[in-house]
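Chapter review: from sequence to fold.
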Amino acid sequence: MKIGIDLDGVIFDSEKEYRVYSELYDILDLHKNSKIDNQEIKFQQRFNWSKEEIEGFIKKYHTKITKESNFMPGVKIVLPMLKEEGHKLYLITARGGINKDMIPVTMERLEKEHLNIFEKYYWATENKAEICKKEEIDIMIDDSYQKCQSVAQAHIKTIYLKDAPSYDIKNNPYVQVLYNWGEIYRYIKGLE
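The token string follows.
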């Protein structure tokens, strides 16, 4: 099976880090209370920040979050198991779009943990459905409501890994909402 895998919020637990630091930045640096939608995953849409304020947050915290965020529980067990069982893994991420310097930092972290096990790496990818169709991906794992909806509309099975306040996806035969890598492994085994 060909499995597409997002990075932030799927392999790295960076979304929680972004949530913490965006709250602190809003309160301590900007002296505001400008949260507009806590269900949004991207901090740019969760807060009513100007372009300059967004750039300030990225400059101050983006590298820090990339270097210090933990791996999602279970990912260092399940990814190698899937690879060993013959599945082809594809990293499909938007990371590298805002800051290309994050790509080598990320590769270094993956190599250090022996998780540089992907067939191909797609960085700075906004249209994940297009890549999934091109690579004939059987199932895509992502934590973004919008990305899961987009991939599902292309009739590709999608695992919506939900680990933070976010929108629900209901009644879509192409989307399975799961909450951890153990559930992901069980679901993939059930598809075989």
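Two observations follow directly from the output. The chain has eight helices and six strands. The beta strands are 2-5, 88-92, 120-122, 139-142, 157-161, 175-178.
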